[in-house]
């Protein structure tokens, strides 16, 4: 009935979709197994992509040749660039998505890839032979053979949904949990744990009074995620902001005794940076209000997502509290919020390719690794799909360094430090964030995606053209000077020091008060220099010129760190023979099996003296 596939992907959420698309685009035959063909790429929580640090990840996925950026552009209803008041390392794109269109576009994309097949069923067991994954067995008892398996089970592994004192099995509301795989992997020696996440109630937008809320429109000139020719939005839908109050908090507190979180019925650890509303009013009792973001779920629906009101309290308490929020006095609830517990596997059991140490050709991606967020899941799926393909065809593994991408930071953090709570990406996690900006993801990664066979030739040609334009602009600005007479009126108008002598455009642009657009408007010379270049190239050149000293400093740090990254440790290195290692260091090294000295240095519990001993032992 079934052919032998190169790659089987279990689960069709954000991680599974990117894994399937990547492996198939690179030439692998792929079977995508999902419990429900109608919920492929379902946005289980808020209908949005991007945000602080997450937007950088979506841009990186796109630059490598992944699909999340393109699909976000095609299905967004609002776009905003966050943190524009800060430096460019903090700028983060975010869009509000049409939930239905997003899932539909993902399904269309996968169905249009001739290397992707589908099967609606539940994977109950991984087929393993000689220590290698070689397929799956489904709930129908069908054995399907493959050369590699990617698990992207999301919240479905032994999922348990909580609403007040009620709980029932499920991976998402209205969908059953998946059983069998956790139990099998534990018997093989894998360590498993429990995590928790949650979602807010959904309400009828027709029942809300928006006049009592603050409007949050999209950007006047909306940008987009993808570096391809997707179109920016011509029209947008607004989001809205309102606030809880003391009356809301008091009503919520009446349900605390029935809260599964406070009563101890929920054992899993929830996301620290996206707490439930009951957790917020409990932890921050001094705050008399909390923000609520009112987000439409699409162009053609009245359903509204109540961001900031995630809860697992009894539904009657949720409803009563909601109606005390300004603008929600007559709110009608479509469905209550709930919490969900699910199994995950501590990611220190993975290689940097996301392949497991214990079973060859078995990959984990997404929430199974302890992460939270569509973007974090999608980038793991992309990397797992790439490396599953590379394994099948005996090609070199593909790994991104911390200095190359936020994706590299995320995976390096997971496999070396692990996580005991749902991991979420922040700009603060990236020590080289001046290099890892959202605007230059194509310059950093598209050549790599092209060499993999994932990004097409038109993408790499566009990047090469952009690089040439940026270099030309920088050269022109370094070699062109303005006189005081030409520019002083503009400098006086913006309140910065006047010139006494000629100065190069590159030096002038280093002033924090001055932008390239101001220079272009003030000087016909500057306008002439820039008239043949695109806005992306101009912005890139401006950032490179304005922040060149900071960029150079980070490049030097990267070069220093890369010396350790280039010191390889053999795969089956025997740490027991290195008697000078600390006991904790030896145990952590044996568990994580780092590929390089650099990776070893980032493992929690491995001390600098352990690294020195290792370097001496391998002759460095």
TrEMBL record:
Alphabetized Pfam families for the sequence: GIDA (PF01134), GIDA_C_1st (PF21680), SAM_GIDA_C (PF13932)
InterPro entries referenced in this protein's UniProt entry, alphabetically: FAD/NAD-bd_sf (IPR036188), GIDA_C_N (IPR049312), MnmG (IPR004416), MnmG-rel (IPR002218), MnmG-rel_CS (IPR020595), MnmG_C (IPR026904), MnmG_C_subdom (IPR047001), MnmG_C_subdom_sf (IPR044920)
tRNA uridine 5-carboxymethylaminomethyl modification enzyme C-terminal subdomain domain boundaries: 545-616
Keywords of this entry: Cytoplasm, FAD, Flavoprotein, NAD, tRNA processing
Record protein name field: tRNA uridine 5-carboxymethylaminomethyl modification enzyme MnmG
Function: NAD-binding protein involved in the addition of a carboxymethylaminomethyl (cmnm) group at the wobble position (U34) of certain tRNAs, forming tRNA-cmnm(5)s(2)U34.
NCBIfam families listed in its UniProt record: mnmG_gidA
Residue ranges of the region described as Disordered: 194-227
Biased composition (Basic and acidic residues): 203-215
Chief localisation class: cytoplasm
GO molecular function, one term: flavin adenine dinucleotide binding
Protein residues bound to FAD: 11-16
Gene Ontology cellular-component terms listed: cytosol
Ligase listed as a keyword: no
Known partners and oligomeric status: Homodimer. Heterotetramer of two MnmE and two MnmG subunits.
Subcellular location(s) of the protein: Cytoplasm
Lineage: Bacteria, Pseudomonadati, Bacteroidota, Cytophagia, Cytophagales
């Amino acid at each position: 009935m079934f052919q032998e596939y190169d790659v089987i992907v279990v689960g069709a959420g954000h991680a599974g979709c990117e894994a399937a698309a990547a492996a198939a685009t690179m030439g692998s035959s792929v079977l995508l197994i999902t419990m429900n063909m109608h919920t492929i790429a379902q946005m289980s929580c808020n209908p949005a992509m991007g945000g602080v640090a997450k937007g950088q990840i979506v841009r990186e996925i796109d630059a490598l040749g992944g699909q999340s950026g393109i699909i976000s552009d095609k299905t967004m209803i609002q776009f905003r660039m966050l943190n524009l008041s800060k430096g460019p390392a903090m700028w983060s794109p975010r869009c509000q998505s049409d939930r239905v269109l997003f899932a539909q576009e993902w399904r269309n994309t996968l169905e249009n890839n001739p290397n992707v097949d589908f099967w609606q069923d539940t994977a109950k067991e991984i087929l393993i032979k000689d220590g290698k994954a070689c397929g799956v067995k489904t709930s129908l008892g069908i054995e399907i053979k493959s050369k590699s398996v990617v698990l992207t089970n999301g919240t479905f592994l032994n999922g348990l949904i909580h609403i007040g004192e009620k709980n029932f099995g499920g991976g998402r509301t209205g969908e059953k949990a998946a059983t069998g795989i956790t139990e099998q992997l534990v018997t093989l020696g894998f360590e498993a744990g429990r995590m928790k996440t949650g979602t807010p109630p959904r309400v009828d937008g027709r029942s809300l009074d928006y006049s009592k809320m603050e409007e949050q429109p999209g950007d006047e000139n909306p940008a987009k995620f993808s570096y391809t020719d997707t179109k920016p939005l011509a029209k947008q839908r607004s989001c809205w902001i309102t606030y809880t109050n003391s009356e809301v908090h008091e009503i919520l507190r009446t349900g605390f005794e029935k809260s599964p979180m406070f009563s101890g019925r929920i054992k899993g650890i929830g996301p620290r940076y996206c707490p439930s509303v009951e957790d917020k009013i409990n932890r921050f009792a001094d705050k008399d209000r909390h923000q609520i973001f009112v987000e439409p779920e699409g162009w053609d629906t009245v359903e509204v997502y109540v961001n900031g009101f995630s809860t697992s309290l009894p539904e009657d308490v949720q409803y009563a509290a909601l109606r005390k929020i300004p603008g929600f006095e007559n709110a009608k609830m479509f469905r209550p919020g709930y919490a969900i517990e699910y199994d995950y596997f501590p990611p220190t059991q993975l290689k940097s390719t996301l392949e497991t140490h214990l079973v060859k050709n078995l990959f984990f991606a997404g929430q199974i690794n302890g992460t939270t967020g569509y973007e974090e899941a999608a980038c793991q799926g992309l990397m797992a799909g790439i490396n599953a393909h590379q394994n099948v065809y005996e090609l070199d593994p593909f790994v991104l360094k911390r200095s190359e991408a936020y994706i590299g930071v995320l995976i390096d953090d997971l496999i070396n430090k692990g996580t005991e709570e749902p991991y979420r990406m922040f700009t603060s996690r990236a020590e080289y964030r001046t290099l890892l900006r959202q605007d230059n993801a194509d310059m950093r990664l598209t050549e790599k995606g092209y060499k993999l066979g994932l990004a097409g030739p038109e993408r790499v040609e566009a990047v090469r053209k952009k690089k040439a334009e940026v270099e030309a602009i920088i050269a022109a600005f370094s070699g062109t000077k303005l006189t005081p007479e030409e520019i002083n009126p503009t400098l006086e108008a913006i309140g910065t020091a006047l010139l006494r002598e000629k100065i190069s455009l590159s030096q002038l642009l280093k002033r924090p008060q001055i932008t390239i657009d101001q220079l272009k408007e003030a000087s016909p010379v500057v306008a002439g220099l820039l008239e043949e270049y695109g806005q992306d190239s101009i912005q890139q050149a401006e950032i490179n010129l304005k922040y060149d000293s900071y960029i150079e400093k980070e490049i030097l740090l990267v070069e220093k760190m890369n010396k350790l990254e280039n010191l390889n440790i053999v795969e089956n290195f025997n740490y027991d023979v290195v008697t000078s290692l600390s006991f904790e260091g030896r145990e952590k090294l044996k568990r994580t099996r780092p590929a390089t000295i650099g990776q070893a240095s980032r493992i929690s519990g491995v001390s600098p003296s352990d690294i020195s001993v290792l370097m001496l032992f391998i002759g460095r």
